[in-house]
């Protein structure tokens, strides 16, 4: 099947792949049956960025075939769709959205991880609600006591407070108790250890005090403390949920199966895990190779960029080995499976990634570093206070009460809020700049970088070629060339197709010859677009330039060659210049050939340029930088960069990156311009500064509070005022707006749709 | 003092009503799309409520 009639095949293929690049069988697998008997599915629609989009998306779907109801979610940039029944194919809805300018992909609801995180978020919110209820009611009673309630009335207030506070602490404190317990079991100290201890001891001593009809109880402190800390915890969770939804929904684009050709010639769709060696798979043009194998039939061009980093297509025929992740561009092929999915090249990369990530595990979050210092100091201080008072007065109960007061007032309420509130604010700023952040640890690491390593293809350059010269002019059949090009998935064809203006030219008898090009008949004349020597067969005269660019000719007409070149990403030169001006060492580390790398290096001045680097070379280079004591930011996109992204001190990937690249990176920027790198660094550094300020505030507060507490002057009223006061100052410092730096990019509400 | 026997249960009862209302609104899916809800107020179209979590779940 060297020559196959691709026009009908392309049409079948389009229908099969209408749902955002995944097959019908898989699409239906992602539709769930609701209790109402209808089908439910979710689409990831990154283009939903404002209120107008909500209306546009819902209106577009309201009269779409098979759709009963659609509801857009602006926060997660998703659309929840109710289908007539679970057997309805959501493809028309996906196509309708695509036609409206909102590319959509179907989310796999069964993917692990999401449901747990959702449950965790809801659990935190419930805890927050319970703590809020407890805090307001206990505080009301406490204010009455502070206002001067005495005797029996005070005892009643205390008893009622205890009735509310004990169940509230038991319920809302669980996130902290669980985390503290895990840390202690592992022989570590985290912030949750002093928090849990303070809350539990405060509740316990207050219960004793209530029973003994004493004057001071700390129920309000315990509950309000939990409430404040849960606010911080919930904000943190919310931020991560947002980033996760943005990043992982992209990852689910990948098809997780392939068409198997049975020995009797019929086809069946198999999930990735069910593919076994020696099976024969059919790979249509535009599909990725699911597992390692070799071609047994057909000819095509392959995009091996995931493996080599190079986008130039390679012609391939029977006998050629295929690695999982390679993109099949032009021809339908049959392949024999060599290894199951678990042993494929992709899986190998995943293992390299895991190994590289473990190397980075040495980084300790700033809050945990603070806790390591803070917790022993506070606990020691409380113990010394107790011993000191026992020695001085000889009475153990008042001494214990004072010691616990010290523990409560020094409890890291402000410290617990110091980091998450800053990070939430920074994540919001990054999000408005089109940058997704995975977690706060990446933000802390980004603030400390002193070296930046860029990958070339897809990162510094956009990875898609553009026509920069040559080719036919309008009279010589530019429209015909563009019309031919629209029918091919070859990257060069896409660049040529982009030149078309005006209505499409009708083409008859369209054939694509894998490895050669595409041909068709227009107004009775045969036209070819593809490899120069193949096109020259029908041409007469015309220039044959030395470049490897594609050629076009009408039958009997002159041969015209296109010149293609890579385009630099917007703002790449400015970003590199800005980073160098800030004293960073900026490097280009590419797997591409010397010529292509030098062409880019001529336009952008890097400190250091290296070409022909394999994935292992990249990791070795980053390890070497680390050994020199440098903290490197890796910016890359490909599968060949994924392990390097994980090995670097901190990493960023463009939204167009491979799944593995996006999963490995700490930050993903969805806007086109490279300015995202400098913006992210600026925001991260500001966040780090604010965290340090917050720690400063918390320490200053403790310098005043601790002597008072040790001296025994702290009453529950003083504790309540001091704790709320310091928390409010810390929160206010974290969310204060940024003073506009000169030359800083204006904040965008979101990327234009 | 006997007024306290009335006032304290009343205040706690009101608090519990608030808590219950919050938990209901959460279960109802009103915290699923905070940004969207802010924008939807400004839309002229007929607006249907979000399908609830339970309906939406597998």
From TrEMBL, chain A:
<keyword id="KW-0460">Magnesium</keyword>
<comment type="similarity">
    <text>Belongs to the cation transport ATPase (P-type) (TC 3.A.3) family. Type IB subfamily.</text>
</comment>
<dbReference type="InterPro" id="IPR018303">
    <property type="entry name" value="ATPase_P-typ_P_site"/>
</dbReference>
<keyword id="KW-1003">Cell membrane</keyword>
<dbReference type="InterPro" id="IPR036163">
    <property type="entry name" value="HMA_dom_sf"/>
</dbReference>
<dbReference type="GO" id="GO:0005886">
    <property type="term" value="C:plasma membrane"/>
</dbReference>
<keyword id="KW-0472">Membrane</keyword>
<dbReference type="GO" id="GO:0043682">
    <property type="term" value="F:P-type divalent copper transporter activity"/>
</dbReference>
<dbReference type="InterPro" id="IPR008250">
    <property type="entry name" value="ATPase_P-typ_transduc_dom_A_sf"/>
</dbReference>
<feature type="domain" description="HMA">
    <location>
        <begin position="39"/>
        <end position="105"/>
    </location>
</feature>
<keyword id="KW-0812">Transmembrane</keyword>
<dbReference type="InterPro" id="IPR001757">
    <property type="entry name" value="P_typ_ATPase"/>
</dbReference>
<dbReference type="GO" id="GO:0016887">
    <property type="term" value="F:ATP hydrolysis activity"/>
</dbReference>
<dbReference type="InterPro" id="IPR006121">
    <property type="entry name" value="HMA_dom"/>
</dbReference>
<dbReference type="InterPro" id="IPR027256">
    <property type="entry name" value="P-typ_ATPase_IB"/>
</dbReference>
<keyword id="KW-0406">Ion transport</keyword>
<keyword id="KW-0813">Transport</keyword>
<dbReference type="Pfam" id="PF00702">
    <property type="entry name" value="Hydrolase"/>
</dbReference>
<keyword id="KW-0597">Phosphoprotein</keyword>
<dbReference type="GO" id="GO:0055070">
    <property type="term" value="P:copper ion homeostasis"/>
</dbReference>
<dbReference type="Pfam" id="PF00403">
    <property type="entry name" value="HMA"/>
</dbReference>
<feature type="transmembrane region" description="Helical">
    <location>
        <begin position="193"/>
        <end position="211"/>
    </location>
</feature>
UniProtKB/TrEMBL annotation, chain B:
<protein>
    <submittedName>
        <fullName>Cytochrome oxidase maturation protein, cbb3-type</fullName>
    </submittedName>
</protein>
<keyword id="KW-0812">Transmembrane</keyword>
<keyword id="KW-0472">Membrane</keyword>
<feature type="transmembrane region" description="Helical">
    <location>
        <begin position="6"/>
        <end position="24"/>
    </location>
</feature>
<dbReference type="InterPro" id="IPR004714">
    <property type="entry name" value="Cyt_oxidase_maturation_cbb3"/>
</dbReference>
<dbReference type="Pfam" id="PF03597">
    <property type="entry name" value="FixS"/>
</dbReference>
<keyword id="KW-1133">Transmembrane helix</keyword>
């Amino acid at each position: 099947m060297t020559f196959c009639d691709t026009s009908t095949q392309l049409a079948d293929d389009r229908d099969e792949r209408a749902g955002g690049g995944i097959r019908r069988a898989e699409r239906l697998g992602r539709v769930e049956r609701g209790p109402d008997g209808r089908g439910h599915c979710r689409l990831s629609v990154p283009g939903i960025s404002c209120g107008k989009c909500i209306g546009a998306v819902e209106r577009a779907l309201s009269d779409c075939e098979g759709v009963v109801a659609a509801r857009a979610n602006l926060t997660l940039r998703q659309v929840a769709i109710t289908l007539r029944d679970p057997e309805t194919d959501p493809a028309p809805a996906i196509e309708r959205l695509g036609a409206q300018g909102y590319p959509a992909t179907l989310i796999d609801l069964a993917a692990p991880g999401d449901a747990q995180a959702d449950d965790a978020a809801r659990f935190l919110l419930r805890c927050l609600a319970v703590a809020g209820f407890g805090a307001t009611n206990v505080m009301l009673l406490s204010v009455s006591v502070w206002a001067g309630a005495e005797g029996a009335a005070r005892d009643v207030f205390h008893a009622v407070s205890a009735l509310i506070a004990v169940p509230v602490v038991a319920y809302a404190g669980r996130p902290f108790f669980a985390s503290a317990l895990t840390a202690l079991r592992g022989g570590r100290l985290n912030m949750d250890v002093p928090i849990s201890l303070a809350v539990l001891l405060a509740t316990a001593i207050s219960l004793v005090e209530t029973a003994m009809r004493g004057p001071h109880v700390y129920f309000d402190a315990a509950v309000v403390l939990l409430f404040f800390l849960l606010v911080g915890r919930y904000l943190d969770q919310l931020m991560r949920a947002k980033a996760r939804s943005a990043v992982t929904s992209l990852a689910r684009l990948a098809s997780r199966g392939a068409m198997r050709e049975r020995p009797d010639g019929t086809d069946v769709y198999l999930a990735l895990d069910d593919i076994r060696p020696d099976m024969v798979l059919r790979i249509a043009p535009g599909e990725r190779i699911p597992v390692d194998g070799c071609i047994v039939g057909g000819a095509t061009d392959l995009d091996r960029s995931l493996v080599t980093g190079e986008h130039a297509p390679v012609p391939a025929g029977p006998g050629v080995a295929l690695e999982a992740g390679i993109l099949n561009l032009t021809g339908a092929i049959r392949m024999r499976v060599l290894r199951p999915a678990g042993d494929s090249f992709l899986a190998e990369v995943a293992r390299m990634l895991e190994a590289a990530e473990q190397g980075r595990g040495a980084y300790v979050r700033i809050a945990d570093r603070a806790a390591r210092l803070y917790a022993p100091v506070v606990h020691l201080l409380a113990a010394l206070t107790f011993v000191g008072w026992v020695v001085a007065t000889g009475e153990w109960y008042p001494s214990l009460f004072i010691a616990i007061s010290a523990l409560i007032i020094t409890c890291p309420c402000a410290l617990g809020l110091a980091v998450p509130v800053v990070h939430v604010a920074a994540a919001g700023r990054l999000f408005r700049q089109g940058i997704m952040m995975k977690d706060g640890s990446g933000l802390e690491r980004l603030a400390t970088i002193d070296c930046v390593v860029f990958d070339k293809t897809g990162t510094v350059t956009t990875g898609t070629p553009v026509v920069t010269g040559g080719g036919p002019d309008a009279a010589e059949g530019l429209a015909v060339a563009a019309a031919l090009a629209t029918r091919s998935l070859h990257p060069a064809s896409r660049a040529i197709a982009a030149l078309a203006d005006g209505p499409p030219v009708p083409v008859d008898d369209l054939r694509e010859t894998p490895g050669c090009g595409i041909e068709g008949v227009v107004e009775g004349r045969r036209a070819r677009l593809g490899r120069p020597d193949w096109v020259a067969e029908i041409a007469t005269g015309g220039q044959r330039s030395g470049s490897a660019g594609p050629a076009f000719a009408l039958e009997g007409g002159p041969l015209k060659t296109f010149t293609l070149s890579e385009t630099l990403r917007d703002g790449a030169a400015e970003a590199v210049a800005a980073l160098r001006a800030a004293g960073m060492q900026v490097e280009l580390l590419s797997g591409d050939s010397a010529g292509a790398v030098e062409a880019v290096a001529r336009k952008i001045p890097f400190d250091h340029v290296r070409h022909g680097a394999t994935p292992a070379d990249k990791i070795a280079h980053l390890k070497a930088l680390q050994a020199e004591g440098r903290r490197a930011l890796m910016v890359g996109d490909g599968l060949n960069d994924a392990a390097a992204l994980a090995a670097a001190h901190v990493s960023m990937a463009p939204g167009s990156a491979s799944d593995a690249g996006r999963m490995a990176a700490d930050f993903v920027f969805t806007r086109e311009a490279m300015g995202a790198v400098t913006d992210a660094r600026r925001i991260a550094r500001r966040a780090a500064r604010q965290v340090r300020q917050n720690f400063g505030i918390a320490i200053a507060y403790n310098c005043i509070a601790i002597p008072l507490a040790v001296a025994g002057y702290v009453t529950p009223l003083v504790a309540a005022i001091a704790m709320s006061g310091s928390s409010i100052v810390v929160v206010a410092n974290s969310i204060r707006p940024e003073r506009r730096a000169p030359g800083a990019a204006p904040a965008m509400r979101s990327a234009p749709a | 003092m006997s007024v306290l026997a009335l006032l304290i249960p009343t205040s706690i009862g009101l608090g519990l009503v608030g808590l219950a209302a919050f938990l209901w609104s959460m279960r109802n899916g009103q915290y699923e799309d905070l940004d969207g809800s802010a924008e939807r107020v400004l839309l002229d179209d007929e607006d249907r409520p979000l399908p609830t979590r339970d309906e939406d779940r597998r």
